[in-house]
């Protein structure tokens, strides 16, 4: 656990010494966690301060919380929120429509080719967005998809589709094969196997996958910045308008930031366990 | 990576449905395949195509074929090599820091103590925060030379106020992105630690292993796969860092924090130099894929040896 050199290892250590050591480690853990959370805590506090308090130096720790900032941030927040919700939910739905059948087929008919297909799908994640942005931008311009929600949804689906296929594939392979076989004996069609067995039995996995896909689409910046400007601008573009604030409106910026990150924080905390699976594509369990 | 499919299922492939069904496995897979081909492979080939032309959106009708001219321009200008170097330093520096801090945090959290679950949950927060929020909050509220929290800390310790983003731009950006990605490393590494059976550690302790030996011979070998996953996933993600730079330094001062993605954004959307931006995009993809393939091979090889042993 620690690199503290111990003198005589096999000798049973004094119980009280272990207790002290454990307490010290716990205190360190809390201290590190607090340091890590500090930027977020500071942002949350600033959201409830007056502008003067928000960029006072020395910093103000005790203050009377106000809700002004949220009221001021809301008018410009809502259109961006609407775009973010539509883009995140829309792309998740589309990725599910395309990805669920693929995940099902790859899970129920596992061949070498299926394995290669899965690997290939994962490899599209290795394609940096900058490798495709130029033609996509020109294409979107010609098709009048720039600054539209359908355009944004199309790109976010590209981003989320490999994730959906991989995660759902790993959930669907966990369904006992005997269930499919029994259904087949009873004369179930492929469609029936998909809708009556695979989907209901992997429902919890679907929920976790959907949460992750929504989080990723919500937080995306590159496509948002380069393919939208005003009409379809999601929250990431809205927040970036604060990047030149030069010390002004910190409190209002914090309020907008809180409203932007809070839904994702809650989603992420809820889906914490599935996060590992999704982030490592099932490689670490 | 390959552990997702158990060998038992790959060998026991079921008989194909005999009756004339409309839904074949291929028909179920193709929509997703086609979508990904259309939105990733096709545009990438177009990027390669554009990269051979002197193509500027300001003069769209005149775009002469110049072969590898754009690549030559990119690779001979020392400023552009600086951008490639920045990309490597940013990704490499952040990766090492997140592994060290995330590993330490994982070990601290892999013990029983009150509030452990809550702390673990809260610790992942910075990874969930939108990169652009991280950038604007760090830039304005923490790194600001006059009113920023860090400047106040330095000043109250008797130091001179520091203009972090101007004086130490790369270090500041790395610190910011490390803050974001440490929870990712911690989460994966903690999961790796938790799958280590207790009896192995106990047996080692009974045999008189020191904590250091315990770490070296039991924890580390078991941890290897989790570490490799962190390295692979972070390498791919960190080579593509964009939002954090866009929201904080805009690649500056000068070229100090311009990485390849930000450079391409500038070339394509500020200078409209489609040809040059495309060539840089191709180079980024090649760089990413060389690293990713190399790392994937390493993971697969280790998986196989693990299974064999």
Would you kindly provide a written description of the structure presented here, covering whatever features stand out?
The complex is a heterodimer of chains A (285) and B (309). Chain A is mainly alpha-helical. Helices cover 71% and strands 0% of the residues of chain A. In chain A, helix 1 crosses helix 12, helix 3 packs parallel to helix 12 and helix 6 runs antiparallel to helix 9. The longest helix of chain A has 41 residues. The N terminus of chain B is likely disordered. Chain B has 309 residues and is mostly helical. Chain B has 15 helices and no strands. Helix content of chain B is 71%, strand content 0%. Chain B is globular and about 75 Å long.
Listing every helix as H and every strand as E from the N terminus to the C terminus, the arrangement of chain B reads HHHHHHHHHHHHHHH
Class inferred from helices and paired strands of chain A: mainly alpha
**Shape label of chain A:** globular
How many H/I helical runs of chain A? 13
Average pLDDT confidence of chain B is 85
Low-confidence stretches of chain B: 1-13, 17-21
Number of strands of chain B: 0
Distance between the termini of chain B: 18 Å
Query: How much of the sequence of chain B is in beta strands?
Result: under 5%
Q: With helices defined by DSSP (H or I, 4 residues minimum), what is the helix count of chain B?
A: 15
List the helices and strands of chain A in order.
HHHHHHHHHHHHH
Specify Rg of chain A, calculated over alpha carbons.
25 Å
Principal-axis shape of chain B: globular
The proportion of residues in beta strands of chain A is: under 5%
Radius of gyration of chain B: 24 Å
What can be said about the biggest beta sheet of chain A? none
Largest interface: A-B, 120 and 122 residues
């Amino acid at each position: 656990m620690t690199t503290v050199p111990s003198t005589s290892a096999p000798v049973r250590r004094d119980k009280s010494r272990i207790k002290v050591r454990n307490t010290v480690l716990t205190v360190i853990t809390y201290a590190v966690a607090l340091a890590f959370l500090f930027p977020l805590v500071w942002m949350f506090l600033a959201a409830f301060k007056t502008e003067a308090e928000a960029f006072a130096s020395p910093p103000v720790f005790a203050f009377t919380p106000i809700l002004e900032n949220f009221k001021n941030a809301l008018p410009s927040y809502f259109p961006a929120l609407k775009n973010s919700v539509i883009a995140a939910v829309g792309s998740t739905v589309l990725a599910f429509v395309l990805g669920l059948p693929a995940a099902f087929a790859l899970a129920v008919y596992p061949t070498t080719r299926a394995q290669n297909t899965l690997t290939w799908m994962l490899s599209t994640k290795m394609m940096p967005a900058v490798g495709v942005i130029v033609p996509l931008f020109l294409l979107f311009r010609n098709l009048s998809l720039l600054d539209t929600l359908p355009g944004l949804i199309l790109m976010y689906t590209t981003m989320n589709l490999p994730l959906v296929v991989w995660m759902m594939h790993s959930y669907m392979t966990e369904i006992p094969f005997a269930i499919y076989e029994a259904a087949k004996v009873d004369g179930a069609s492929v469609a029936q196997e998909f809708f009556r067995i695979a989907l209901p039995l992997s429902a919890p996995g679907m929920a976790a996958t959907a949460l992750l896909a929504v989080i990723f689409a919500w937080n995306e910046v590159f496509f948002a910045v380069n393919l939208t400007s005003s009409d379809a601008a999601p929250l990431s573009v809205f927040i970036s308008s604060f990047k030149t604030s030069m010390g002004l409106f910190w409190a209002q910026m914090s309020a907008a930031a809180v409203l932007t990150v809070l839904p994702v924080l809650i989603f992420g905390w809820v889906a914490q366990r599935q996060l590992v699976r999704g982030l490592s594509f099932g490689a670490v369990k | 990576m390959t552990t997702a499919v158990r060998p038992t299922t790959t060998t026991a492939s079921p008989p194909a449905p005999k009756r004339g069904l409309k839904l074949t496995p291929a028909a179920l897979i193709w929509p997703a395949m086609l979508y990904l081909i259309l939105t990733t492979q096709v545009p990438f080939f177009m990027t390669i195509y554009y990269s051979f032309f002197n193509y500027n959106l300001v003069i769209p009708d005149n775009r002469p074929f110049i072969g590898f001219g754009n690549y030559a321009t990119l690779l001979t200008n020392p400023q552009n090599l600086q951008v490639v170097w920045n990309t490597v330093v940013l990704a490499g520096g952040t990766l090492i820091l997140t592994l060290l801090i995330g590993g330490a945090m994982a070990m601290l959290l892999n013990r029983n103590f009150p509030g452990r679950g809550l702390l673990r949950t809260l610790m992942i927060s910075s990874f969930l925060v939108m990169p652009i929020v991280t950038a604007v909050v760090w830039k304005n509220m923490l790194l600001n030379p006059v009113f920023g929290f860090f400047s106040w800390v330095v000043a109250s310790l008797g130091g001179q106020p520091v203009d972090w983003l101007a004086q130490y731009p790369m270090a500041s950006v790395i610190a910011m992105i490390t803050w974001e990605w440490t929870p990712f490393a911690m989460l994966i590494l903690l999961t790796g630690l938790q799958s280590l059976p207790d009896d192995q550690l106990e047996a080692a302790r009974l045999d008189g292993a020191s904590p250091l030996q315990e770490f070296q011979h039991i924890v580390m070998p078991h941890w290897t796969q989790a570490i490799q996953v962190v390295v692979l996933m972070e390498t791919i993600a960190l080579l593509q860092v964009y939002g954090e730079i866009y929201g904080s330094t805009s690649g500056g001062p000068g070229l100090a924090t311009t990485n390849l993605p930000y450079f391409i954004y500038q070339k394509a959307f500020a200078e409209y130099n489609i040809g040059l931006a495309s060539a840089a995009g191709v180079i980024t993809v090649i760089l990413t894929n060389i690293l990713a393939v190399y790392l994937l091979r390493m993971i697969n090889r280790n998986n196989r040896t693990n299974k064999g042993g």
